[in-house]
């Protein structure tokens, strides 16, 4: 099933490159899907990372205003680097995601929580507990500020 999925997505990618410009959004999505397949089915970190990085380059070049998509793509890259235990690189990526999200949303928007949790987790893994706690506290503050008085959901 894995090989068949991979081959089909590679064929889709080839068709998109023929039909559209190489930086077309459908081409970018095909690259991301191929990266997902390589990662999920085969844990082929290097190849998945290569496809994610190609799609990021295309996004930044052709769709620089697609901030959310760029941030999501960076998260994919950060997740792969995390699985490879390249924690310093992961922190650089996640901090870049956080900056994009803060600029696009606001510093206290609920959408920042996953990124803040990712950063806190990596810092904890590196035994930088005081720094991790700062990000965890920020998560708590955002959750408190974004919950109504009749719906308290503070966990993380």
Characterise the protein shown here.
It contains 7 helices and no strands. The chain has helices spanning 2-19, 25-42, 45-62, 67-83, 87-104, 113-125, 129-145. The relative contact order is 0.08. The chain has 2 domains: 1-64, no CATH class; 70-156, Alpha Horseshoe (Serine Threonine Protein Phosphatase 5, Tetratricopeptide repeat). The longest helix is centred in the first third of the chain and has 18 residues, at 2-19. It is an all-alpha fold and 156 residues long. The model has no long low-confidence stretch (mean pLDDT 91).
Which descriptors apply to this entry?
Serine Threonine Protein Phosphatase 5, Tetratricopeptide repeat; 76% helix; single chain; mainly alpha; globular; 156 residues
Brief rundown of the structure:
This protein has helices at residues 2-19, 25-42, 45-62, 67-83, 87-104, 113-125, 129-145. It has 156 residues and is an all-alpha fold. The termini are far apart.
């Amino acid at each position: 099933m894995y090989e068949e999925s991979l081959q089909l997505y590679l064929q889709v990618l080839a068709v998109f490159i023929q039909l559209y410009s190489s930086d077309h959004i459908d081409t970018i999505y095909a690259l991301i899907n191929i990266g997902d397949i390589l990662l999920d089915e085969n844990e082929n970190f290097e190849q998945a990372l290569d496809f994610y990085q190609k799609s990021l380059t295309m996004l930044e070049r052709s769709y620089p205003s697609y901030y959310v998509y760029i941030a999501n793509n960076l998260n994919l890259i950060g997740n792969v680097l995390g699985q490879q235990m390249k924690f310093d690189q992961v922190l650089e990526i996640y901090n870049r995601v956080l900056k994009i999200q803060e600029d696009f949303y606001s510093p206290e928007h609920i959408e920042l929580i996953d990124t803040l949790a990712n950063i806190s987790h990596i810092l904890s893994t590196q035994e930088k507990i005081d720094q991790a706690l700062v990000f965890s506290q920020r998560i708590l503050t955002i959750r408190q500020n974004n919950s109504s008085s009749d719906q308290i959901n503070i966990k993380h």
